[in-house]
Amino acid sequence: MAKILRGEIRWADLNPTRGHEQAGMRPVLILSHDIFNERSGTVIAMALTSQPQHAGFPLTLELKSENLPKHSWIKISQIRTLSVERIGKKIGRVSPEELAQAVEGLNEIIGT
User: Fold this and answer.
1) In Å, what is the CA distance from 27 to each residue of 22, 57, 71, 90, 110?
2) Are 43 and 81 in contact (CB under 8 A)?
3) How many Å apart are CA 37 and CA 101, to the nearest integer?
4) Residue 68: inside a domain, yes or no?
C-alpha cells in the first residue's frame, strides 16, 4: 500500500460500530503524522459526510477543497484510531488551512 499521509482523504471501513459512530465504507481525513502512520500500523482519522450538517464548528467543518468528488463536511467529533488495514484508496487532500481548522476544532472539543 502507498504511504498514508497526513491531510489525505481516504476510504475507510469503519465497521463494526456501536451507537452513534459513523459506519460503513466512508471517507476519512487522516490527522496523524506520516511517521506515526508508517510505524504504528494505525492512523488517527476523522469521518467525513456529504450530508449538509446542522451543527457548526467545532463539531463539523465544511470543506472548500475543490479536488473532492462531493461537497463534504468533516465530522470533527467522529475521531478514531484505525488499523491501516481498514484504509483504502486516496480520494483527495485537504488544504493545510483546513487541516489546521480540523485540529483546532478538536482542541476546542477536548479542551486543550
Assistant:
1) 10, 19, 12, 9, 23
2) yes
3) 21
4) yes
Instruction: Indicate whether 66 pLDDT > 80.
Output: no
Gap between the Cα atoms of 31 and 105, Å rounded: 12
Q: What is the pTM of this model?
A: 0.90
In this structure, is residue 60 part of a structural domain? yes
Count structural domains, the chain: 1
Residues 75-100 have a mean pLDDT of 94
What CATH number should be reported for the domain holding residue 106?
2.30.30.110
Alpha-carbon gap, residue 55 to 109, rounded angstroms: 13
- Backbone phi, psi, residue 109, to 5°: -70, -45
Q: What is the mean pLDDT of the chain?
A: 90
1 within some domain: no
